[in-house]
Amino acid sequence: MSGYEVALRLRELVMSGRPLLIALTGYGQPEDRARTREAGFDFHLVKPARPEEILNLLQ
User: Fold this and answer.
1) What is the CATH number of the domain that holds 52?
2) H-helix or E-strand containing 53?
3) Which end of the chain is less crowded, N or C, counting CB atoms within 10 A of the terminal residue's CB?
4) Burial, 19: exposed, middle or buried (Cβ in 10 Å; 0-12, 13-18, 19+)?
5) Boundaries of domain holding 15
6) What is the pLDDT of residue 18?
7) Distance between terminal CA atoms of the chain?
8) Predicted pLDDT of residue 14
9) CA 18, CA 34: separation in Å to the nearest integer?
10) What 3-state class would DSSP assign to 54?
């Protein structure tokens, strides 16, 4: 199962709260970002992501 499928399935589940989904990928073109957004990711980070960037999103 791809990360896109995982995100789609998580968004389909009925659960209390909404988990934060962050895509960490080597692909950063506009169509890649659109695909992660459509799958239900909240953020799209391109490798190599800076640790501060990840920590800021998790806070």
Assistant:
1) 3.40.50.2300
2) helix 51-58
3) C
4) exposed
5) 3-58
6) 84
7) 28
8) 75
9) 20
10) helix
DSSP output for 2-52: -HHHHHHHHHHS--SS----EEEES--SHHHHHHHHHHT-SEEEESSPPHH
Distance CA 35, CA 58 (A): 22
Query: Could you give the CA distance from residue 28 to residue 1 in angstroms, rounded to a whole number?
Result: 21
Query: Length of the chain, please?
Result: 59
- What is the per-residue pLDDT for 44? 98
How many structural domains are present in the chain?
1
Residue 54, amino acid: I
The structure tokens listed for 30 are: 């506009």
Angle at which helix 30-39 crosses helix 3-12, to 10 degrees, equals 30
